[in-house]
Design a protein that fits this description.
- The chain has 304 residues and is of the alpha/beta class.
- It is 22% helix and 27% strand.
- It is built from 8 helices and 18 strands.
- The chain has helices spanning 41-47, 71-80, 94-105, 162-167, 172-179, 240-245, 251-260, 279-286; strands at 3-9, 23-28, 31-35, 55-59, 86-91, 113-118, 125-129, 133-139, 147-153, 159-160, 184-185, 191-192, 198-199, 206-210, 228-232, 265-269, 292-294, 300-302.
- Strand 8 (133-139) and strand 9 (147-153) form a beta hairpin.
- Helix 7 packs parallel to helix 8.
- The structure holds zinc ion.
- The site of zinc ion (ZN) has 8 residues, from loops.
């Protein structure tokens, strides 16, 4: 199963000549999820040859322009590409009126059905589920209501050992049941215990998107053992005061969060345009959490 995240925008409010405002595309088993949709997101999708028509769910962390300004353009382009079916938007309630008003204002009749889901500010909430994946939202602490998102694979099936299939002559229709934990009963009625037939499943993988927020260690317990943590790091730690005033985090705090979560890998982003050289941010985070990467447009992070 493919599980990866493409960075489409890594800048905070003010874009730079080579950094776009926030957007991530998550691919889980060829299902595509867009998180935030800053200005330029549709161009970034095209430039990186990502399948924009396959996006069924869009999650918007909060209603600041640098996370939303690309949405109307994205939706109207989707419609021009003759996208049909449903597109689901998960965002704070006020966005619904803005979307409807804007589409009406520009006389845009979308070819597809836009389905709106209001995010909750009350704790950890499941917002999406399929056979293999669950997505949760959880409130962050910013100047306006803001949510982080956790993508977590469901527990996987046991692995059926190749050597036992022949040995016990296990028919095709029985294999799935064994992978789900059943013992095997052969034609003579002999019971072969499941533990003789299977190996433990691969661990479920997870990815969390945490922006925009002040440092909130409380959430670490919900993100325990996260495989990939994306955490905003708008400022360097020298600017901690500014980070607090604007309800943002520093690179040091992002690294502290990764450590608290026992994360495998940290990607920092949402950089303030004041830093032309981001190596300062990378260095201060890596001093606390060595496996830290800077978010860069067009880069794909594989979760494994
Ligand atoms: Zn922002």
């Amino acid at each position: 199963v493919n599980f990866n995240v493409s960075i489409l925008g890594s800048s905070s409010a003010l874009p730079t000549s080579n950094r776009y405002p926030t957007a991530h595309l998550v691919n889980h088993d060829e299902r595509f999820f867009l998180i935030d949709c800053g200005e330029g997101t549709q161009m970034q999708l095209r430039k990186n040859h990502l399948p924009m028509s396959k996006i069924n769910h869009i999650f918007i962390s909060h209603l600041h322009g640098d996370h939303v300004f690309g949405l109307i353009g994205f939706l109207s382009s989707l419609s021009m590409l003759n996208r049909a079916g449903e597109v689901h938007i998960h965002a704070h309630q006020p966005l619904e009126k803005y979307l409807n008003d804007s589409l009406k204002f520009f006389d845009s009749n979308l070819n597809f059905k836009l389905v709106f889901h209001a995010l909750s500010d009350k704790g950890f909430t499941m917002v999406y589920e399929d056979k293999k994946l669950e997505i949760f939202s959880f409130p962050l602490l910013h100047r306006i209501p803001c949510c982080g998102f956790l993508f977590r694979e469901k527990p996987k099936l046991l692995n059926l050992r190749k050597d036992v299939i022949e040995k016990y002559d296990i028919p095709n229709h029985y294999r799935q049941r064994i992978k789900m934990g059943e013992d095997f009963v052969n034609v003579n009625g002999d019971i072969i215990k499941n533990e003789l037939l299977t190996l433990p499943p691969a661990a479920p993988l997870s990815y969390a998107f945490v922006t925009d927020t002040i440092y909130k260690p409380y959430w670490a317990k919900f993100l325990a053992d996260i495989d990939l943590l994306y955490h905003e790091s708008t400022f360097a730690h020298d600017d901690l005061k500014l980070a607090r005033q604007t309800f943002h985090s520093t690179a040091v705090q992002a690294a502290q969060m990764a450590k608290l979560c026992n994360a495998k890998k940290l990607v920092i982003g949402h950089f303030s345009a004041r830093y032309s050289d981001l190596s300062v941010l990378q260095a201060e985070a890596a001093a606390i959490f060595p496996n830290t990467y800077l978010a860069n447009e067009g880069e794909k992070h594989v979760i494994n």
